[in-house]
Amino acid sequence: MYDALLIVSFGGPERREEVIPFLENVLRGRNVPRERMLEVAEHYYHFDGRSPINDQNRALIAALKLYFERERISLPIYWGNRNWHPLLADTVRQMRDDGVRHALAFVTSAFGSYSGCRQYIENIERARAEVEGAPLIDKIRPFSSHPRFLEAMIDRVRVALEELPQGRLVFTAHSVPVSMAQSSPYVRELERACAAVASAVGRTEWKLAYQSRSGPPSQPWLEPDIRDHLRAIRCDAVIAPIGFLSDHMEVIYDLDVEVRQLANELGIRIARARTVETHPAMIEMIAEFVQQEHTPCAADCCAAPSARPLAGARGSGTEPRP
Fold first, then answer.
1. Higher-confidence residue: 41 or 218?
2. pLDDT grade, residue 293 (50/70/90)?
3. Section 67-82 average pLDDT
4. Over the chain, what is the mean pLDDT?
5. Please, what is the end-to-end C-alpha distance for the chain in angstroms?
6. In the prediction, which pLDDT does 125 show?
7. CA-to-CA distance for 169 and 270, rounded, in angstroms?
8. What pLDDT, on the 0 to 100 scale, is given for residue 307?
9. Residue 287's pLDDT band (boundaries 50, 70, 90)?
10. CB within 8 Å of 72: residues ≥ 6 apart
11. What angle do CA 108, 25, 220 make, to 5 degrees?
12. 242 with 173: CB under 8 angstroms?
């Protein structure tokens, strides 16, 4: 059995002065023009340089601690990020010093893709390699078909449909390069989850669209983009960001700023479902994971695409990037 739970996420700046160092860290070693990085920085400056993702992870950890205490689950919870403080290697070092031997890692990404699954496994192993005597760490497999995850998303969509009952139901997820999608179950898992949620809320018609694409125009990414889809249908829509676990920067900027601006231009109304965040079903799901035997991902799951995108595409559960 496990003696610790590790929350692994992407990370984000919390002050204006952290924005550029954060983005430089994300893009280290990648051939991305500086002007493009500065353009993305403006997304953060729109919110005074503070990404909400760290506060959302703190809220998740607080909710888990309350649940663990109530259910008498004696398990410490740690938190480490891929790209910003608290950095994963620092957290693994603290776990070792605390005597942790075998931890379970919950990654804030529900769907299988290189950036949302395999890359996090690589991040964990790289962090362990930096820490002598590091504990063993097993990553939870992608969980988009788990009944608790679907229950939480169904609740969120129902609330949004009450706000705009006549709206078309449109799900969104992070666009990724087509080459990445072809090497993983990403699209298949998304379509299956969307169909399950739509059926549960009584909708036979729905659409899966994508958002937050990056990379050069010459590189094919998953489509349609949510904005192109809204331009095509030109009618009221209920948007459900099923591919994201929390209302982090990509969700609030791409949907609550850019898409709402487009809706105003088109003269249509939109309602946006919340992400699952700390929904009770999500907390129960994570608690179930820590009390069960875990089957690791296959060694070849969610393989890296043959040509990785220059900007470091990151699949679901991540934030804007050049």
1. 41
2. confident
3. 97
4. 93
5. 41
6. 97
7. 10
8. 53
9. very high
10. none
11. 70
12. yes
C-alpha distances out from residue 233 to 39, 173, 202, 229, Å: 29, 19, 21, 6
DSSP characters over 103-137: EEEEES--S-SIIIIIHHHHHHHHHHHTSTTPPEE
Q: Whole-angstrom Cα distance, residue 197 to residue 312?
A: 30
Domain boundaries, the chain: 4-143+278-290, 147-272
CATH 3.40.50.1400 is the classification of domain 147-272: yes
Q: Say what the pLDDT of residue 320 is.
A: 41
Q: Which pLDDT score is estimated for 186?
A: 98
- Residue type at position 76: P
Backbone angles phi, psi at 294, to 5 degrees: -115, 135
| CATH class of the domain whose range is 4-143+278-290 | alpha beta
Place of tokens 């700046």: 13
Same fold, 4-143+278-290 and 147-272: yes
